[in-house]
Amino acid sequence: MKKAFKATAAVALALVQAVCLFSVASSALVSVKLGDLNNNGIIEAADARTALRIATRLESASDYQLRSGDLNADGSISAAEAREILRAATKLSTLEKDTADFYSVTLPQSELFSINKVSGTTLANAGDSFAFMLDIAPSCSQSNPVVKLNGEEITAEDGVYTVADIRADCTVTVEDVKLNTYSVTLPRQTGATFSPYGSANPDFVEHGKSFRFTVALDAAYSGSSLTVRANGTKLTPASGIYTVEEITADTVITVSGLKINTYTVTLPKETDENGIPLGFTIVPEQGCTSPVAYAGSYSFKVILADSCSQSDITVKANSVELTADADGIYTIENIKANQSVTVSGVKANPTGVMVLEDSPSNKFIVAAAAERDGSSKANMVAIYEERFDSQPSDSNFVLEFDGSGTKSPDTLKYVYYIKADMTVKTIKADSALLLFTDTEGYIAVKLIKDQIMPQYPDYFDGV
Ligand SMILES: [Ca+2]
Ligand SMILES: [Ca+2]
To answer: Which of the ends of the chain has fewer CB neighbours closer than 10 A, N or C?
Structure first.
């Protein structure tokens, strides 16, 4: 690829002046040994062979080879000259002239650019011109090269630099050719911070170098699974470090997959395993759905069933107790983990009060005594419910103890279970535990001993 340089009429004029304006050197610095095309000091068959290949255009000649093989100085190597060199190599004859002298044009060498000859030769006769183009490597395309002849800047016309009217050795130099630098643009996106790794500078990455960077996820985005690309090519991090290899262009890093964390809110079941309602329902506030975004909140009401309306409930989220606001709304704030809501303390409202009475005229004692021969009202205690709604209750018991005078779970002999319609069921207390067929009786006796009697510790013994 040729690189064009700005050229104007003024430049063209400058070119004419930018020649080797030196006095003719008293002696040329380069003396070419004629016939010695490979410049090893000896004329040999190999030199003749090369000359012939150049003469027959099988090979192109370097400036030195051309000068060395052109015995008659007419500007080209002929087959006749190749033969003459062979004769000299085989000592059949000697060359007319041993050497020829030229002015040298010394050219710079670099991997970053090349000098391509347009016309002339770097081994010049007095008054010759040498023209060349400068090709900058793609890796240096951003450079603004300065071409100098013996330290003085020269300019090109249509991309061609000309060293005219050569009358002394001269040197071409090229300055300010350097590797391109590129920028790496890191994403700026909510949820992640991209940082150059170590001392990497994203604004100046030299051609062919790599660039490394890291990504730190914000806490709210910590669950994201990122896909990171450099100019569309997916990058895979190694030990958390992303590397863009061998950068040869400005590079844009993109990221996808950034997602704010979400957490589930699990509400308690409103029925037991048999489908029986547990006495409450949870009603989420408008707009409250699970999952909840990081640091979000979730509000709900707990509606108690009418039958449980007097319950003193405890509401927790992950064992942290929540307090309802004035409107009865519970809110889990600043959610950063999955939440499990529990409601405890829901129980059926009491339907009445339990009363203990041991008067022999109590109607339950009377009914119980009538039920069993040999019973004694004096050893009986009635515990029965007086309902708030004044309706007869099914929760009526008469306890009959032995005649020892002590009333304790151990001296309990019979439990009479009396329903609202005053029907009596007699349960033998001391054998109840053995009567597995009499489940209802077993439960009734256990209830009396374990739960009802202990409510009257001043009255009963051993509770
Ligand atoms: Ca030789
Ligand atoms: Ca010739």
So the answer is: N
Three-state SS at 95: coil
The residue from 234, 256, 278 where one domain ends is 256
Query: Same domain for 292 and 377?
Result: no
Q: Distance, CA 74 to ligand 2 centroid (Å)?
A: 5
From the CA of 72, which ligand is nearest?
2
**Ligand 1 centroid – CA 101 distance (Å):** 17
Containing structural domain, residue 61: 9-175
CA torsion, ordered 165, 168, 169, 172, to nearest 10 deg: -40
> Is 220 strand, coil or helix?
helix
Q: Are residues 82 and 195 in the same domain?
A: no
Q: How many domains does the chain have?
A: 4
Ligand 2: centre distance to CA 386 (Å) = 141
Model confidence pLDDT, tens digit, residues 141-191: 999 999 999 999 999 999 999 999 999 999 999 999 999 999 999 999 999
Same domain, 54 and 153: yes
* Cα distance between the two ends of the chain: 108
Distance 70 CA to ligand 1 centre (A): 14
Could you say which ligand is closest to the alpha carbon of residue 69?
Answer: 2
Distance (Å) from CA 61 to ligand 1 centroid:
15
Q: d(Cα 164, Cα 20) in Å, to the nearest integer?
A: 7
Question: Of the residues 344, 360, 375, which one is the last residue of a structural domain?
Answer: 344
CA of 75 to the centre of ligand 1 (A): 20
Which pLDDT does position 433 carry in this prediction?
52
CA dihedral for 50, 53, 58, 60, sign (positive or negative): positive
Cα dihedral angle (70, 72, 78, 82), rounded to 10 degrees? Answer: -70
Cβ contact 79:56 at 8 Å = yes
Residues with CB under 5 A from ligand 2 (ion): 70, 72, 74
246 & 332 share domain: no
Determine the distance separating the centroid of ligand 1 and the alpha carbon of 33, expressed in angstroms.
Answer: 9
Distance 69 CA to ligand 2 centre (A): 7
Output the pLDDT for position 9.
36
Residue 302 and residue 330 in contact, taking contact as beta carbons nearer than 8 Å: yes
Flag whether pLDDT at 377 surpasses 90: yes
Average pLDDT, the chain: 90
User: Looking at the predicted structure, is the pLDDT value of residue 4 above 90?
Assistant: no
- Interval between CA 28 and ligand 1 midpoint (Å): 22
Nearest ligand (C-alpha, residue 100): 2
Residue 85 Cα to ligand 2 midpoint, Å, equals 12
